[in-house]
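User: Hi! I have a protein structure encoded as tokens and I'd like to know what sequence might fold into it. I'm fairly new to this, so please keep things simple.
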């Protein structure tokens, strides 16, 4: 039987990816995790310091609430902006923690903070809009903006600026080419730096004066070691707040977060949420609401982070890693490794291969200066942190 000739050439490569996707870089922390898992499957010992994820389980109350809901049997859709009871619980959280009175209607429950960023970016910005982000900063900001056809504008937030975005830098950049918005994070990833009251107030005031949207990522709130972090809402009621149950509440895989927003964008966000996500996952919402009652358990976990932080900040300088970002909050140490290498990507590859310590290269967070840095996450155990110090002590003198 003679097969009909295909109209498609044998070497036809298929449809092309959208051009903008070529600019979306890999998330290097996840690449390191993949390499570390491969090494573990081969039977090697690995210490995971690469991923910003608590190793503790979700709070007991959250797990019990989810189990009780699952036992009922039917797990369905909720309202697109989340269960009213969870939105009210988040509003109560702001009153209790920050002394702020928020209408629950201004809160949207989202599929993790990642879903919140997608909703906010789509609702606030036209294609091609320029959005200022800190450098170093969380790489998914840059890559999500690019994937949505927006332009991330890196703003140096290094040792010279106190590791935070400065209002004067925003004015200068906006004067060169108009911005549409500013995204800050406090405590920061990868540096752990907390924006003080005046720095946060100055950015909010600058955004109001220049007519820019102000988005504040507060996912690491609750995880500070000197003084509590401030919410941008304390200085700008128009700020869009992104938060999540992933970090302080130890619920990364539950994929549940929230937005706080001005009333005028609630309906646009709701329309997007209806179409993109339908609703956040029901079980995760039930668990998240219960997690607000787990403060004692969560504070014990945080005490473990604090001990790990103290250990690393005390031990790393003696190994030659003495230029560190402040680590005021979150669970990261961001270390300058330029006395050992000018290629942090290769450095982290060799570190994993030679010692079994998985760390994230600074290039994930800063495309200009990240070759000089690496990030260590201390969200794991004290034994992991001590083991990392010992392996570095034995390895660094010989590289």
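Assistant: Happy to help. Inverse folding works backwards from shape to sequence: for each of the 399 positions I chose a residue that suits the local structure. Here it is:
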């Amino acid at each position: 039987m003679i097969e009909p000739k295909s109209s498609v050439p044998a070497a036809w490569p298929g449809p092309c990816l959208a051009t903008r996707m070529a600019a979306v870089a890999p998330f290097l922390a996840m690449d390191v995790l993949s390499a570390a898992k491969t090494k573990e499957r081969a039977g090697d010992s690995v210490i995971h310091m690469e991923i910003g994820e608590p190793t503790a389980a979700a709070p007991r109350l959250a797990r019990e609430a989810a189990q009780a809901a699952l036992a009922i049997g039917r797990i369905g859709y909720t309202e697109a902006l989340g269960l009213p009871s969870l939105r009210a619980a988040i509003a109560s959280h702001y009153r209790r923690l920050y002394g702020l009175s928020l209408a629950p209607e201004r809160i949207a429950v989202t599929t993790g903070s990642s879903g919140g960023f997608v909703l906010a970016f789509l609702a606030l910005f036209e294609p091609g809009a320029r959005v200022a982000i800190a450098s170093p900063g969380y790489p998914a900001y840059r890559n999500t903006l690019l994937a949505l056809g927006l332009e991330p504008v890196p703003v140096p937030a290094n040792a010279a600026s106190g590791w935070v975005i400065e209002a004067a830098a925003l004015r200068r950049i906006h004067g060169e080419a108009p911005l549409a918005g500013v995204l800050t994070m406090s405590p920061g990833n990868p540096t752990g730096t907390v924006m003080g009251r005046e720095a946060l107030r100055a950015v909010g005031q600058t955004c109001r004066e220049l007519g820019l949207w102000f988005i504040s990522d507060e996912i690491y709130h609750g995880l500070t070691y000197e003084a509590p972090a401030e919410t941008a809402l304390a200085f700008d009621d128009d700020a869009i707040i992104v938060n999540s149950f992933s970090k302080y509440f130890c619920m990364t895989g539950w994929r549940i977060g929230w937005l706080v927003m001005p009333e005028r964008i609630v309906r646009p966000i709701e329309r997007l949420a209806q179409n993109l996500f339908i609703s956040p996952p029901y079980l995760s919402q039930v668990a998240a609401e219960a997690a607000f009652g787990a403060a004692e358990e969560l504070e014990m976990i945080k005490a473990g982070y604090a001990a790990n932080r103290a250990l690393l900040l005390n031990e790393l300088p003696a190994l030659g890693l003495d230029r560190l970002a402040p680590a005021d909050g979150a669970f990261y140490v961001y270390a300058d490794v330029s006395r050992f290498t000018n290629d942090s990507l290769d450095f982290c590859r060799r570190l994993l291969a030679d010692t079994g310590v998985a760390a994230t290269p600074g290039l994930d967070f800063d495309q200009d200066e990240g070759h000089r840095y690496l990030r260590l996450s201390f969200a794991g155990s004290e034994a992991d942190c001590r083991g990392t110090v010992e392996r570095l002590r034995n390895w660094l003198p010989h590289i």
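A useful reference point when you look it over: Residues 355 and 391 are 6 Å apart (CA to CA). Feel free to ask if any position seems puzzling.
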